[in-house]
Design goal:
It is built from 4 helices and 2 strands. It has about 100 residues and is mostly helical. The chain has one domain.
Length: about 100
């Protein structure tokens, strides 16, 4: 087990990824983000962002999950906005 986030990141660099990782990683992240926002506190914080565009800004060059120096696919931001909309629809249906 890693003692710090930096140590965890370093350990992750040596992990063997499945050959089809690039085809699966977005759906896996979507599943994990949905799970994360089952937590009522985190869910309310996500919903509190309203309609704001969410971007995973970074300076380390991640242009898949985020945006660096103005460019990137921003998959994490897109998934967060998808999950936010799912949560909003669930809240509305619970109130009907």
């Amino acid at each position: 087990m890693a003692r710090t986030p930096a140590a965890a990141k370093q350990m992750g660099k040596s992990a063997q990824l499945p050959e089809d990782w690039d085809a699966k990683k977005i759906d896996i992240m979507r599943t994990l983000v949905r799970e994360k926002f089952k937590n009522p506190l985190l869910r309310s914080m996500l919903l509190a962002t309203g309609e704001v565009y969410l971007a995973e800004g970074n300076w380390w060059g991640d242009r898949v999950w985020g945006i660096c120096k103005g460019t990137g696919l921003n998959w994490l931001g897109k998934i967060l906005m998808e999950v936010r909309e799912e949560c909003r629809r669930e809240e509305e249906s619970d109130n009907d």
